[in-house]
Model the fold of this input.
Amino acid sequence: MTGRAPSELEPKRLLEDEASPRALRDALHALRERAPSEASAARIHERIQTPPAAGHGGAIAAASLAVIGLVGVLAWSAWPSLTAPAPRPIEDARPQAQSGPPPADSDGEASSAPDRRVQRATVETPAPLAPVPQHEPQARAAASAPKEAPAATVVAEPPRTERRPKLAPRPAVAAATPAQPAVTAERPEPAVVPNPAPKPAAADEAEHVFADPQDEAGLLYRAKRLSSSEPNAALRLLVLHEASFPTGAFAEERDMLEIQIHERLGHGATVKRLAAIFKQRYPGSVYRVSP
Amino acid sequence: MSSRSYGLGHAAQSLAAFGAHKEPMAAPDVDSIWRAHGSFVWRVLHHLGVKPADVEDATQEVFVVVHRRLHEYREEDKLRAWLYAICVRVARDHRRRLFRRRERVTDVPPERVVGPVQATAVENQEALQLAEKLLAALPDKQREVFLLYEVEQMSMSEVALAVDCPLPTAYARLRKARERVLEHVQRAERRGEVP
Done:
């Protein structure tokens, strides 16, 4: 061992060594050739181009606000009962915050008040963390109907935001919902009446929980069903589908559905790019309307 | 002691230099890192045990960290070692998260629908299955050195830096890993399990 460079002493790699078994070289070659598919690479590339500024910090700030709000409201509610034996201390303490109809009893009021404060603190954070459906709220804002469905949406979203603090959101969701907080903030104080309408967030969760990654047709069926109401959840299912069945029997349908969803979300650049890939990959596809 | 210049001293020197102050260089941007090393990151996450359905998310997380930490990175030639260190942390977080998820995660890859014209894909799949078996037979530390050297074709000093160990230790791990792998392949050949 004299003055030779370290690289000269490195053993010949098995992949390049003719003396190593053929099966081993094939195996190493297969590992070496592993790479994301074109569509997958395009998706990742698009996602990493969004700066992660509103990632963790936003989530932590939102959680802190929620906790501070909850503690504050609880302390505010408890204070009068410690100092004076007033029968309805909560209503007296917050006269301007409660403009809706009075609750049936004081217990119901005491339990619902802090919840609503927490939800508002979370919902008013910048959009990217929570994958909120886009079409519904915008339609509601345009119609400016002040009283019904908003209550269900506001109640449904916050728990997901707190439970799933991702490092960074999918930019497709973030880019598509810039005006979300403003719309939510302008809503009037929601009535306390619970709305039994199905919650979009819960539906999204359920689709993921029950989606069997080995059921190719089932995955695509669920994605198709969610594509109009929950496009982002549908996209996630398509990612799962592609990971499990990159060359599956429904690969063409999957790619087509992905393009349709992006088109619906208004992602023009992504649609163009995916369409170009689609044309290359399926030159004789029945989905092509132009050569 | 010039003959040992590439030994422990070299590794320690490299580790010390990694991230230390040097001539300010034009930092590569995230886009160029993705183009040059995106596949490397994707592959490494696979090899580190991130489930296929999560690799896209994990890759994004790696590049989120790259976004945040790019200003700390200074040495062009150690980029892959730096990326590997990030991948290790992201993969570890992903494995931890698996315990909290309700989805069913299996070790066996799902059955793929394979058409008759995809004979090469089948061969490739068989080779991959053998590779997975070989890697599964290795202890973690030997496996990472083996993969980085034999598959990712990194130099041994780069490997030592990436896995944060002295250079002789990296060589020892590689040697043991090779012995195990060759032994495994020969045994499989004797049994007729490989073509």
Summary: The radius of gyration of chain B is 19 Å. Chain B has eight helices and no strands. Chain B touches chain A through 66 residues (CB under 8 Å). Residues 167-190 of chain B form the longest helix (24 residues).
